[in-house]
Design brief:
Blueprint (H helix, E strand, L loop, with lengths): L18 H10 L11 E11 L5 E13 L2 E13 L5 E6 L13 H12 L14 H4 L2 H22 L6 E13 L2 E10 L5 E7 L6 E3 L5 E3 L3 E7 L2 E8 L7 H20 L14 H16 L4 H11 L15 H7 L10
Antiparallel strand pairs: 1-2, 1-5, 2-3, 3-4, 5-6, 6-7, 7-10, 8-9, 10-11
Helix pairs in contact: 5-6, 6-7
Length: 345
């Protein structure tokens, strides 16, 4: 079996701390990326803590660090939920330290309103999965964070049912992206309460000569790319990413990543059957990470085109799925009910 040594990234939170300390680490904690020329990480995690009143306080978070215009940019996204002992969502809020990836377009006031409309008063059960769609939250980051909260909540519940104390639950993972010899390496570390940390790496060989972006910022494949997936340095899956004439690269990449997630789940939780899992490897999130990593490295001196690529990521089927991806007022009115330009003030 093929093995390789990859740098192992460091977690940002690292332990189930007080919620205020978690907030500060997510928003302001220092981090040293592997790639010094074009540093880039995507980190995410969930922390659940039972309070003295019996309610469960949950913080789900995500952080991006990358270099834009020769300046390192750090963006944090945090969501807070309060869930009663009976499983009722009492409160849902977007953290005040939220700083969206598209500046003023990512209105915290508007996004928090959508979050509250979708979640407050709802019961946190399996039926909630039907509400966890990016088109409901109007933000891909919030959708990804809520997906992590969802699977964490049921992992926590299972621990309690199996005799755990129910005091807290912690999970976190981080992907550190770097380029070497024309290849792209996305190396991650995944941690869960009571589990050994597991490292993983996706390697895309010679990717910068095989992938391009069209005039609208959509990623295109010029020729097949060899992709490999490693767990703890051991090769466990390989595939060739190619694009059929009437196909999208997203479909081929999704198929590869679905297998990667299943390999990760089988290693960490052999009996875990839920379709959702709190991981950056989830295809919807990871494809966005790949696009951003390739785009920033390919067009490092063209900030406007990088923004164009990032907007295309948020426009599946060329329609805005995220409030940050609107191109004009007409799109805002058509696709984002209740969004008012006063939110941008």
């Amino acid at each position: 079996m093929k093995t390789a040594n990859f740098p192992v990234p460091k977690l940002i939170v690292r332990e189930p701390l007080d919620l205020e300390i978690i907030r500060k680490r997510v928003a302001y904690g220092n981090y040293s990326c592997t790639d010094k020329l074009v540093p880039m990480i995507r980190a995410r995690g969930t922390n659940l803590q039972r309070q003295k009143d019996g309610n469960l306080r949950i913080i789900g978070w995500q952080r991006d660090i990358t270099r834009m215009r020769k300046q390192d940019v750090s963006l944090s996204f945090m969501i807070h939920l309060t869930v009663s002992p009976e499983g009722l969502i009492l409160e849902a809020a977007v953290d005040e330290l939220f700083n969206g990836g598209k500046g003023v377009l990512c209105s915290r006031e508007y996004l928090e309103r959508k979050l509250k409309e979708e979640l407050e008063g709802e019961r946190f059960d399996r039926k909630l999965a039907a509400r966890l769609r990016f088109d409901r939250f109007k933000c891909f980051h919030i959708y990804e964070i809520m997906s992590g909260i969802y699977s964490s909540y049921f992992m926590y519940r299972q621990q309690v049912e199996e005799g755990g104390t129910g005091a807290l639950f912690y999970e976190e993972d981080i992907v550190d992206i770097y380029a070497a010899d024309g290849n792209l390496y996305l190396t991650g570390l995944q941690a869960f309460s009571g589990k050994e940390e597991l490292s993983y790496t996706v390697v895309l060989y010679d990717v910068f000569n095989h992938i391009t972006f069209d005039q609208e910022g959509y990623m295109k494949l010029k020729s097949p790319v060899l992709a490999e997936f490693y767990l703890n340095g051991e090769l466990v899956h390989t595939d060739e990413i190619y694009q059929k004439e009437n196909d999208y690269i997203f479909i081929r990449m999704q198929k590869f990543l679905f297998v990667c997630v299943e390999k990760l789940k089988a290693e960490l939780f052999p009996d875990y059957a839920d379709k959702m899992m709190n991981t950056n490897l989830a295809p919807g999130a990871f494809i966005g990470i790949i696009m951003q990593a390739i785009g920033i490295r390919s067009f490092s001196n063209n900030f406007n085109y990088i923004q164009y690529i990032m907007t295309a990521m948020q426009r599946p089927r060329k329609r805005p799925g995220c409030i940050g991806a609107i191109l004009n007022e007409e799109e805002a009115a058509q696709h984002f009910e209740g969004f008012d330009l006063s939110y941008l003030g």
